[in-house]
From TrEMBL:
Residues 208-457 form the Gfo/Idh/MocA-like oxidoreductase bacterial type C-terminal domain. One of its GO terms (molecular function) is nucleotide binding. Residues 55-167 form the Gfo/Idh/MocA-like oxidoreductase N-terminal domain. Pfam families: GFO_IDH_MocA, GFO_IDH_MocA_C2. This is Putative NADH-dependent dihydrogenase. It comes from Lacipirellula parvula.
């Protein structure tokens, strides 16, 4: 399949998916939701459907737009890929204005909230500027590219009072299996938990990818954002015998397999499962004291933490990293080589949870000894559990903290960032969770933040 045909096919799928989700949206005309009053005053206009803009119109971005259309009116879409932006406009019902520069979206005073579905390396800059412009934010996971970016987002949320929901949907969705697991653990049914394993599967590798011209509809320089300016790489189509060549690229979707833009499986799935582990065990307001590398495999050679070639995927393909929380007496292992899900081990039993399974002795015992009636509400910050997107818009109106807040996500995701730093350097680390700094390792500390390309700096 050619590159253009593949992109067209994927856009058609996204359009159909979002159109189906949007069909469930409630009716009503577009009512201006101006931010001339305070956030809280604006949110009390309960009869209004808030106006939202969707920045980043790829697969997950458009999926989130479809969900948002159940609670809000989409008035703007924005992407550096004009084809994706056009497809998103159609999926929104054709009413949304189209932009290629997110700053023009943030200039609009009628937009109350933004949904951010860009590649990971763009999340922080857009989110911070959105909050400073008076918008509430729903942003996909993993929220940040570095630990330092997480600290910056937390600072701006405190300063602006923005409602900010991170897209770790396992806290709310997937038949509430993870919510039920957390309620079981927090009710003491496992006793003292000393070990938790987050299995997130192995990551992709690639052959050597050739340099090709970027698609004409893609502004490649702007897509790169804070990352270094490099050539666009892509492989696909047919081989000499007519068989399909698997699509590989340095760009859409495949960005997650490049450390320049993401963190591989460690942050892609780790952002979900490590979040659940830290949430359940009350570790989402602190951090580990040490990081131990037990297994590390990268698809390309590394030197001083950096890949030595730029024509292949470079994030870790096989890994086992153990983060130790001294005060809590817990070892958190992130690994690729067991069944995808989270395994908790306590002195009263074990519990395994995934997107399709909740199992273990404490689960079996629920038949004779059910959880207290308010157990799920307690785990859901005292509110009746609802879907992740509904929770966001409920909080936009109430000004309460959403289920997946930036502060807990920053702390949970820092485990993944630290694991990646250890993997890139292939050595153990010592971490001060209070100062959020490396202990006695200046080289490792240099990876806590990154230099940003001129013109794309992140400021607070």
């Amino acid at each position: 399949m050619s590159q253009n045909k593949r992109l067209s096919s994927r856009r058609s799928f996204f359009k159909q998916t979002v159109s189906a989700a949007g069909a469930a949206a409630t009716g009503g005309g577009l009512v201006p939701y101006f931010l001339t009053a305070s956030r809280a005053q604006a949110a009390t206009a309960s009869s209004d459907r808030p106006l939202i803009a969707c920045i980043g119109n790829g697969g997950q971005g458009n999926h989130n737009m479809g969900l948002a259309m159940n609670y809000a009116d989409v008035v703007a879409v924005c992407d550096v890929d004009s084809g994706r932006a056009a497809a998103a406009k159609q999926a929104s019902g054709g009413k949304a204005d189209v932009y290629d520069d997110y700053r023009k979206v943030l200039d609009r005073k009628d937009v109350q909230a933004v949904s951010i579905g860009t590649p990971d390396h763009w999340h922080t800059k857009i989110a911070i500027e959105a909050m400073k412009s008076g918008k509430d934010v729903y942003c996909e996971k993993p929220l940040t590219l570095t630990i330092d970016e997480g600290k910056k987002i937390c600072q701006v949320v405190k300063e602006t009072g923005a409602v900010f929901q991170v897209g770790t949907q396992q806290r709310s969705d997937f038949d509430r299996l993870f919510l039920r697991a957390v309620a079981i653990i927090q009710s003491g049914r496992l006793g003292k938990v000393s070990k938790v394993s987050c299995a997130i599967n192995s990551a992709e590798s690639s052959p050597q990818l050739p340099v090709v011209a970027p698609p004409k509809e893609l502004n490649w320089e702007r897509w790169l954002g804070q990352a270094p300016l490099v050539d666009y790489r892509w492989q696909g189509g047919k081989d000499a015998e007519g068989a399909d060549i698997p699509y590989k690229s340095r760009g859409h979707y495949e960005f997650r397999w490049w450390y320049e833009y993401s963190g591989g499986k460690m942050t892609d799935w780790g952002a979900h499962h490590v979040d659940v582990a830290c949430w359940a065990l009350g570790l989402d307001q602190t951090g580990p004291n040490s990081v131990r590398v037990e297994l590390c495999e990268h698809p390309v050679p590394f030197e001083k933490g950096y890949p030595t070639r730029d024509d292949m995927y470079n994030t870790a393909t096989a890994f086992r990293v153990v983060n130790t929380f001294d005060d809590a007496g817990v070892e958190l292992t992130i690994r690729h080589d067991t069944d995808n899900g989270v395994l908790f081990e306590g002195d009263k039993g074990r519990l395994f949870v995934s997107r399709g399974k909740l199992a273990g002795k404490p689960v079996e015992e629920l038949a004779d000894n059910p959880l207290p009636e308010d157990a799920l509400r307690k785990a859901f910050k005292g509110s009746e559990p609802v879907s992740h997107m509904q929770n966001f818009f409920d909080c936009v109106r109430s000004r309460k903290e959403p289920q997946s807040d930036v502060f807990s996500h920053h702390r949970s995701l820092s485990n993944c960032h630290l694991a990646n730093i250890a993997l890139r350097l292939n050595r153990d680390l010592k971490w001060d969770p209070v100062k959020e700094a490396m202990i006695g390792d200046n080289e490792a500390q240099s990876f806590v933040a990154r230099e940003q390309r001129k013109g794309y700096e992140i400021t607070v």
